[in-house]
C-alpha cells in the first residue's frame, strides 16, 4: 500500500522545494509537522482506537500514512496556488519539454548513481559483517560505523567530482 503511493511523498517534496526556493521555508516544515501528527493520530486510531476492531495492524498504519501524505499534497497545492500564485496544468507538457528533461537527467542520473552506490556499499558491508560471525549488536554497529567512516571519505571525494561534472553541464 505504502509503496504504491510513494509518489505522494515525491509530490510533497517537490512542493516543499518550491516553497523553499520562494523564501517560504517554514511552510513545508509546518505542513510536514501537521501531517506527521495526523499520521500518528491515524496510527493510534487503527491500532488502539475506534478502528482497532478491524485488526488491520501494519496495513492500518500504511493506510494512515497514505492518507496523511495525500492530505500533505492537498495542503501543499493550496499554499502553492494561494501564496505563490502558481498554476498546475497539463498544458505545460505540450509540447513536451524534451530539452529540459535532458538537462534534468544530466543532473539526476549522477546524483542517483551516488545514492545507489551508497546503498549497495551498505548492503555489502552488512552482509560482510553478518557473515563474519559477530553476534553482538553493539560490536556489529561498531564495525559498520568504522566501514562507514571509510566510505564517507570516499563519498565526499566522489561528491566533489559529481558537482564538477554537473557544473560543466550547465556552462
What percentage of amino acids are in beta strands? under 5%
CA-based gyration radius: 21 Å
The geometry reads as flat
Ends: how far apart? 43 Å
Largest beta-sheet characterization: none
Structural class by helix and strand composition: mainly alpha
Summarize the structure.
The protein has 171 residues and is mostly helical.
What does this molecule look like?
With 171 residues, this protein is mainly alpha-helical. Helix content is 77%, strand content 0%. It contains five helices and no strands. α1 packs parallel to α3. The longest helix is centred in the last third of the chain and has 34 residues. The radius of gyration is 21 Å and the shape is flat. The protein starts with 5 loop residues before the first helix and ends with a helix.
Keywords, separated by commas or semicolons:
171 residues, mainly alpha, 77% helix, flat
SSE layout and pairings?
Blueprint: H1 6-21, H2 25-47, H3 58-83, H4 98-131, H5 137-169
Helix pairs in contact: 1-2, 1-3, 2-3, 4-5
Amino acid at each position: 500500500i505504502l509503496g504504491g503511493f510513494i509518489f505522494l511523498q515525491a509530490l510533497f517534496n517537490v512542493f516543499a522545494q518550491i516553497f523553499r526556493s520562494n523564501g517560504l521555508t517554514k511552510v513545508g516544515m509546518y505542513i510536514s509537522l501537521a501531517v506527521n501528527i495526523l499520521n500518528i493520530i491515524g496510527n493510534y486510531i487503527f491500532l488502539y482506537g475506534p478502528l482497532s476492531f478491524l485488526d488491520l495492524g501494519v496495513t492500518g498504519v500504511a493506510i494512515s500514512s497514505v492518507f496523511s501524505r495525500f492530505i500533505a499534497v492537498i495542503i501543499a497545492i493550496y499554499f502553492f496556488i494561494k501564496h505563490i500564485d502558481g498554476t498546475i496544468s497539463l498544458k505545460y507538457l505540450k509540447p513536451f519539454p524534451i530539452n529540459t528533461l535532458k538537462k534534468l537527467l544530466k543532473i539526476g542520473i549522477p546524483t542517483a548513481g551516488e545514492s545507489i552506490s551508497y546503498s549497495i556499499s551498505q548492503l555489502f558491508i552488512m552482509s560482510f559483517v553478518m557473515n563474519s560471525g559477530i553476534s553482538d549488536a553493539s560490536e556489529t554497529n561498531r564495525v559498520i560505523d568504522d566501514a562507514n567512516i571509510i566510505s564517507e571519505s570516499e563519498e565526499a571525494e566522489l561528491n566533489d567530482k559529481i558537482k564538477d561534472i554537473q557544473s560543466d553541464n550547465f556552462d
